[in-house]
Design brief:
heterodimer, A: alpha+beta, three-stranded antiparallel β-sheet, globular, B: alpha+beta, Butyryl-CoA Dehydrogenase, subunit A, domain 2, Butyryl-CoA Dehydrogenase, subunit A, domain 3, 3 domains, four-stranded antiparallel β-sheet, 13% strand
Chain lengths: 332, 402
Amino acid sequence: MRFHLSEEQTAIQAAVRGTLADCWPMDRLHTFADGADDFDPASWNALMALGLGGILLPDSGMGLLDAALVSEVAGEAAAPGPLIGQLLTVAAVARSGNAAARAHLDALVAATTVAALALGNSPYVQSARAAQVFLVGSRETGLALVEAGAGVTIEPVKPTDRSRPVSRVTFDGAVRHELFAAGDPMAAQICDAALVLIAADSLGGALHCTDISVAYAKEREQFGQPIGQFQGLKHQLAQMALDAEPARALVWYAAYAHDAALDDAPRAAAMAKAHLCDVYVRSTRAAIAAHGGIGYTWEYGLNYWFRRAAFNRAWLGSPAEHRARAADLAGW
Amino acid sequence: MDLSYGAEAEAFRAEVRRFLVDSWQPGERRGGDLKEFIRTFRRNATDRGYLYRSIPKRYGGSEQPVDVIRAQVIREEFGRARAPMEVGGNGMNMTVPTLLEKGTDEQRELFIRATVEGDYIWGQGYSEPGSGSDLASVRTKGELSADGTRWIINGQKIWTSQGMQSTHMFMLVRTEPDAAKHDGITYLLIDLDQPGITRRPIRQMTGEEGANTFCEYFFDNAETPVSWQVGARGQGWYVSRTTLKHERASIGSADGLGNQFKKLVELAQETGRIGDPQVRDSLVRIEGFVQSHRYTSFRLFSCAAAGEDAGSVQLMMKLYLTEIGHEMAQLAQDLIGEHAFIEPAGAGGRGPRGARGPEKWMDQIMGSLGNSIAGGTTNIQRNIIGERGLGLPRDLAMSAEK
């Protein structure tokens, strides 16, 4: 019986965290946020040099839990790039028999071919202009790999989430490789995995907001004492920790259930997505309130996590939609 | 990660199961017969190393090496067979660990076996009228008798659970009125069967009263031998820290919460509200917390099994549980509707009562408020999380004292 992280898993997180600390400091995030790009090659290459692209290969010896741990750290750092799309596209292509799609696999694992997630009916796709392929479809209709180029129209928009800018994308007659037909359970599994990875990104963001609020409350003085000594704020910070830290195990369980192919894996994914996206929004709101005026400025940067929380919440279904699914899946 | 317990644990499970099939056959026994049967059963289970694992053999325990997986298997199998485990209550949770850590050999000999066998039932003598969260403000007075052999105790204690059944009490009394607040307290054990002690049940907001409720105690020249003092004179506050720690560790069973949530779903079904989208949404929202609590308990369990520190999350479990209870109470109140007009039979109590309808949820609805107070109030829990968990500076009023 083991339900906490192994040394290897802790080391993976530390490696990703260290890499992002080097290649994605706040001033890079600021520059990126005010720029027109939807992709940052330097940080992408640095991250992918760690070998993250192959985590979800069937024979990697790793699984969705490890991918979720990486996604958590990416959320912590508000990292750019279609990380979730890349990992899931590798997972889907590697499990498909479509030779034309599989021809992309090596480059996808190396992340020299960038893959963006275009699941569901939403036209909004992260890093769409950088993507060479798109993972499209849904749990009901099956999944396909679509190649960028003719038949793919990309219209940039001014994005709310500045760390992972989206464009509006339409597919009409693009080159398309079927991965899983409608009704193939693998399509649903990949969609469930996406929910878990979004939940993990949200967990990382929520924990980050809590951590920096606590750190600020220890430094910032008012009325001659650190503000973290005032019980009002101390209790708000305790509440933030209480909201985020126990929810970590909900993400772990959803990822573990997926890897172990437990019966409740689809429901656990829905629960984790709904719960963590709520937690993330609450945490970012509480963090800005805890900081006061500085938290409301652009330059302090908290707004990037707030914006990312807004994106995650609506991405691939709102908490309410996933709660409704979870109620159905429980047979209530 | 792997939620299976492993082959060794499963072999052990089979062994425990065989023992239970052979030994836990209470049949139609009732009353004294059943009591004697349970006593023998517990003794046999202890001989096999299943119960009282952390207690030395000389005091009636089985003295087993720490093995949280085995302990969990035992809990599961005894639970499945509905077999009695260790006697519960303050004695096992607080008195015994404190004596093992801080007691004299004489005290261990005198009290541990009798507690383990259920003959001594312990009341907690910490809270006093007016002491609230400032526990070290105790005013109940202890003075040495003229010959220096006995403590003479005067004052009042309150909120003693199992108070009507208790045979003994562990208590904090002020023995050095001139010393600093925390350094003037002594930790005493006392026999409650004596003329200087009066007890009275407290009638709670739930309506609960009588044999199973909290009590208040009045001490009027009550006495206890000096040899029943645990730790040094004036050091009682620090002795009591052991027991509070044990109390926290024993609050918060994830299975209990899960069962309560299942009953909440059943309530929604019974009341015909399960199809209501708002109710479904509320249920799943609450379940997100219930499951977070459950899987965090796995995490804590797993860390304990590996001898690793789980960190600040362990400080959060009591408050987390409390808050989930409040959420459930609010949804339950919505679901029971006009059933809330009827006071449930045996309201709040633990005694026998007949079949009850949805109105029984009034017990949980009111009882959830008790959880915000007992065992460290919610605001004290927030201080603990903030200060010990997050490392925020201590409150000035409290840090000035200690």
